[in-house]
Each structure stands twice: as structure tokens, then as C-alpha cells.
Design a protein that fits this description.
about 425 residues; 15 helices; disordered N terminus; mainly alpha; two-stranded antiparallel ribbon
Length: about 425
């Protein structure tokens, strides 16, 4: 069984000038195109590991609704759908969660009265619908594609031309919402050229993409973000598959930038002053690297994630087999204590939902949850039937809509939650 290496240095390189200066990319150099879904398995038991993560989530939230602080978290529930699709439970647990999202469409994508529109949630729901094979023209009574297109800025000459922006609520759209919108539209038809152009404008000189939008485009490498870059290159793959042009060199430059930022242990670090190596950021990077054919780097990232997953070697945690820790601190504390305690409960749920995609899943450009391939529980040990996790703690997260705070050590992460 693969165990987490006890390396002396678990750190990953920071976005210092020295590291970025090492990345020299010629704009005119011919580069291989990103191949959505390309790549081999990252670790020997990758399929079982992904299925085990999905199984744990399904056991933890049998209704399909994932929670934060005891309250329904619809963006996280959507992440759960993606995890179930990757783990072969799309037709079962994935459908249960998708039904909940459809039922609570207004709670997630609108506001009291139903007139407001959240661009990030609608974009994410569009991807959920296409991954699950739902009718995107009638999801909870909404035509998700039309709703999303109506939120794209079409004002000629405007610095935000092509950007998807919320209406009737505070606009917190960013790199995640733009990438998800491009993915959803690309997989359900064509994506407007303006939307792709706006996304491309967010690429910083070194190749990374920025997360937060201010001004017409990225001009400073300090704004580049690992999570946003991983999502952007997956979005560009989807756009290329739907007919967009001019995406190959920016995609390769983005993937090159990711490889420079990878730690010697395979991990990736979240942005910000409190960023630490974590399974969520590493999972997104692994997806992007695998889709780009950078298999060695993707495998290295996936193996680091796998080393932080609870498995059959931990009988004291038998009911939580398959869960993935956010980072080494949460893993060590949990293994040492023999239980996922209240301090880490929510963090484990979020980490598992997002990290599952980094164990060998295809990119968001091709992910599908319409085919079942689930085993008893993923690993060759007892299926998790109950969970020792609690739903009373909160996790610090930077998402496309909100942040909640906690004292969980090293829990700051950028999430695909919208």
C-alpha cells in the first residue's frame, strides 16, 4: 500500500522571481496541443483510490448534500458530483447530488425573489449538467446555457468584454467562474470568441493565469495563481475542442509554468501569504498536467495526494477509508488521534471532494459521470458505512462567492466552489 513519504522538506517552491525567471518560453515556439483526457494512471491503485474517495463522500452525505458548518454548501455539493463522476458513482451518488442541485437551483444560483443571477454558480451548474448528461436547456426550469450567455459582457471596447459577470448580487466572478463558463459552453456547443479572448488576457507574462480580475489583463507575474492556471488550461482545452483557435501556445505556456511551481515532493501550494502545499490545489494541477500529456509531473502530484488518503493500513479509521486530508498536518493529527475530529471534519469533506479529481481523473473538458464503474468501496477492505466526521466545524476557503474562517491549521485553499 502506498504510504505518505516522511520527507524532511515538504515545501514547494514559492512564486519568487528566481523560480519564475527559470521559465523561458518563446512565443513563437511550436508546442504540442493539449489533449483532453490524455494520460496514464498516476499510481498503481488510482482507480480504487478515486472510487474510495467517492464512496466515502457518498457514505458521509447519503442525501447528496455536502455541508460546511452544518449548512448546505451547494458549490461543494457540485464538487461532490465531479468526484462521483471520477470515481464511477456518477449514475448513483452523482445523480442524487445533482437532483439536490436542481431542486435548490434558486438557493445556489439566484437570491430571494429569483431575479438575481450568479455567474459562477450558473457556470458550475452547466458543467455539472453536462457531466451528468442532464438537459442543460431545462435544469430546474432554467436553460443554463442561455442564462450563462446572458451574463457575458458584450459591450464593445469595454475592458470586461467577454467576461461573465453576476447580476443583481455582488459580483465576485474570477478565474474559476470564467474557466467554468468556457468549459460549460464549449461542451454544449460553441463558446463566444470574446469569452476565450478575455480568459487569454488573464495570462501573466510567465505563463500563469491570475485568479482575481482588476484591469483589462494580467501584466504582473505576482498575480499568477496555480488553481486559476490549472482551470484555465483545462478551459482552453475544451474551447479548442469546440473550434476555438489560438489556444495551443498559451496552454503550453500555462502548463510549463505549473511544472516550474511543482514542489520536489510533487505537491503544489495555494496562493496567498498563508498558502501551504495542499491536496486541492495539487489535484487541479495534476488534472491539467495529465490532460497536457505531462504524465511524469501529473503522476508525481497524484502520488503526493494518494499519500494523504486514509486507506486499509489504518484500521482505527476503518469507517473513513477513502477520505483525503487537506495536507500533512491534518493527516498526521488524524492518524495519530485515530479519528477525524471536529476540528478537521469539514476540511476532510472539502478536501476529498476536490482531491478525488487529482488521482487520475480526466480533465473537466471530458469528465463524464454517465457510466458506472464503482466497486464495493474502492480499496480491498471494508466499505465505509458510517463516518466519524462531524458537520460542526468550518473551513477557511477562498471561493468564487464567499469565505468562512476556522482555526484549522493550514486550511487556506482556493476552491472550485462557485
Amino acid at each position: 500500500m502506498i504510504r505518505r513519504p516522511r520527507a524532511a522538506n515538504r515545501s514547494t517552491p514559492h512564486r519568487g522571481a528566481g523560480a519564475l525567471a527559470a521559465l523561458a518560453i518563446g512565443v513563437g515556439v511550436l508546442v504540442p496541443a493539449l489533449q483532453p483526457g490524455a494520460g496514464a494512471a498516476p499510481v498503481a491503485d488510482a482507480t480504487s483510490a478515486t472510487a474510495a474517495a467517492s464512496a466515502w463522500l457518498a457514505a458521509t452525505a447519503p442525501t447528496g448534500v455536502l455541508t460546511t458548518g452544518g449548512a448546505a454548501d451547494w458549490g461543494l455539493t457540485a464538487d461532490g458530483v465531479f468526484a462521483h463522476a471520477a470515481g464511477g458513482r456518477g449514475p448513483s451518488a452523482g445523480e442524487t447530488a445533482t437532483d439536490q442541485l436542481e431542486t435548490h437551483l434558486l438557493d445556489y444560483a439566484s437570491a430571494p425573489g429569483g431575479t438575481a443571477r450568479g455567474a459562477g454558480p450558473i457556470a458550475k451548474l452547466l458543467v455539472v449538467a453536462v457531466v451528468q448528461g442532464r438537459d442543460v436547456t431545462d435544469f430546474g426550469g432554467w436553460n443554463l446555457r442561455s442564462e450563462l450567455l446572458a451574463l457575458m459582457n458584450t459591450t464593445a471596447g469595454d475592458a470586461n468584454l467577454g467576461r461573465f459577470q453576476s447580476k443583481g448580487v455582488g459580483d465576485t466572478t474570477n478565474g474559476f467562474s470564467q474557466a467554468l463558463a468556457v468549459i460549460g459552453l464549449s461542451r454544449t456547443g460553441t463558446v463566444p470568441a470574446e469569452a476565450v479572448s478575455f480568459l487569454l488576457a488573464q495570462q501573466c507574462p510567465s505563463g500563469g493565469f491570475r485568479l482575481f480580475y482588476a484591469g483589462p489583463g494580467c501584466t504582473a507575474d505576482a498575480a499568477a495563481d496555480v488553481d486559476a492556471t490549472a482551470m484555465a488550461v483545462q478551459a482552453l482545452a475544451a474551447a479548442k475542442a469546440s473550434g476555438a483557435t489560438g489556444t495551443e501556445t498559451p496552454t503550453a505556456n500555462g502548463v510549463d509554468w505549473l511544472e516550474v511551481l511543482q514542489g520536489v515532493d510533487g505537491s503544489f501550494t495555494a496562493s496567498g501569504p498563508n498558502g501551504v502545499p495542499n491536496t486541492n490545489t495539487t489535484a487541479l494541477a495534476s488534472q491539467a498536467l495529465r490532460a497536457a500529456g505531462r504524465i511524469a509531473a501529473a503522476d508525481h502530484a497524484s502520488s503526493w495526494i494518494r499519500g494523504l488518503q486514509l486507506d486499509c493500513d489504518l484500521p482505527a479509521l476503518a469507517s473513513d477509508i477513502g477520505a483525503v486530508a487537506y495536507g500533512p498536518t491534518a493527516y498526521d493529527d488524524t492518524v495519530g488521534g485515530g479519528v477525524i475530529d471536529d476540528l478537521y471534519a469539514d476540511q476532510f469533506v472539502r478536501a476529498t471532494a476536490e482531491a478525488a479529481l487529482g488521482l487520475g481523473a480526466p480533465s473537466f473538458a471530458t469528465l463524464s459521470g454517465t457510466t458506472a464503474s464503482e466497486g464495493p468501496g474502492g480499496f480491498d477492505c471494508d466499505v465505509p458505512t458510517t463516518s466519524t466526521t462531524s458537520t460542526t466545524s468550518t473551513t477557511s476557503t477562498t471561493s468564487t462567492t464567499s469565505s468562512t474562517s476556522s482555526t484549522v491549521p493550514g486550511s487556506t485553499t482556493t476552491s472550485t466552489t462557485s
